[in-house]
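Here is my example:
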Amino acid sequence: MAVSGCDDNAGAWLAEYRAPLVGFVLPIVNGDRQAAEDVVQETMLRGWQHARELSPEHAGSWLHKVARNIAISTYHRRRRARPREVPLDEATTPTMGDGADGVVDALLIASALNSLSADQRQVIVELFYNRRPVTEVAAMLAIPEGTVRSRCFYGLRALRRALEEQGVTGT
């Protein structure tokens, strides 16, 4: 950045515009004091760079115009950077429960699982709760993979019936 070759006199008359410029810029930046100070700082820098071309008596309008333009361009930059706000739909907002629903669901599932045969229950627990692959469950139980799949199929069907009998309906 090039420094203007002006004397220290420019700093003195530029400083006189600082407070009025902050007051001028504050409404433009919605009362954000820090943003107003930043805009005025940039304005003062530009005023210093153009001090030779400005006369102390007529610099006020130029400085106000520069401050206004900087404030507006800063606002537009911030506006583009800020993500668009999306209003919340109260109907889709999840509610925080006390955990009772989870306990009830767990009891219903446990009861339904207990209604299965031991072989079906063991296969379903290993496949769905312990997340083991069919090949691993077959090796662990020393039965063919087809038997694991068959026990799973008939076990899930029986589990669905047991849950329907308890009043849990599928969608």
About this structure: Residues 1-5 have pLDDT under 50 and may be disordered.
